[in-house]
Amino acid sequence: MGLSRLFLLRFITCLVLFSMKFDTHEATQFFVGGKENSWRAPTSPNMLNEWAKRERFMVGDELVFKYDSKTDSVLEVEEGDYNTCNTTKPIKEHHDGNTTINMVQPGEFFFISGAIGHCDKGKKLEVKVSPAPSLANSKFAFWPWYYITSTQPLIPDDSDNEGSLDSGAVGTNAMVFGVPIMVMAIGFICFMNFVFKL
């Protein structure tokens, strides 16, 4: 009889623990402009930014720029240089034709084309990156498992530019265990063992 009660107790505890919800953010890869070859002179000046406003970028996501490396480039710039299309002092410059930017921290980031005159025609992008979901701001904060996304690049950046998005960095997901729920679960098991022993 005692063995069947213990089995029932463990079975119910396992059901409770495994029914708890996961709060995750899977990293998403975004082709700039929504298509594979959208980093080119847009048909309307605000086309790229209108696309960006429709998307929700979060830490850990990636921006992919596809372009002809012989005639174009991607420049990450300060907001002032973005507004004036100044290509002379970029934070970072990319010429490979297939640039992937890993968004490793929240904030606003600005990109313009390095090709002469293209930025003035609207070939520029402003991206607002939100923090990844965390236990503090999650509607499922009481669940025991949740994901956070590391804001530190795995590959160190040699530049001293703060606020820069590092194209060599990789956003990683780490699974963190909610200690309060585990303490409650262990307490419940101990209490039930005590009750069944009486």
What class would the helix/strand composition place it in? Answer: alpha/beta
Which strand order spans the largest sheet, edge to edge or round the barrel?
3-9-8-5-6
The biggest beta sheet reads: 5 strands, mixed
Residue runs with pLDDT of under 50 for 5 or more positions: 135-178
Helix content: 25-40%
CATH architecture: Sandwich
The coarse overall form would be: rod-shaped
CATH fold assignment: Immunoglobulin-like
**Order of H and E elements:** HEEHEEEHEEEEEEH
Total of DSSP H or I helical runs spanning 4+ residues: 4
How many DSSP E strands? 11
Q: Which CATH class applies here?
A: Mainly Beta
Q: Strand portion, in percent?
A: 15-25%
Determine the mean pLDDT.
73
Termini separation comes to 13 Å
Output the CATH homologous superfamily. Answer: Cupredoxins -  blue copper proteins
Count structural domains: 1
C-alpha-based Rg, rounded:
24 Å
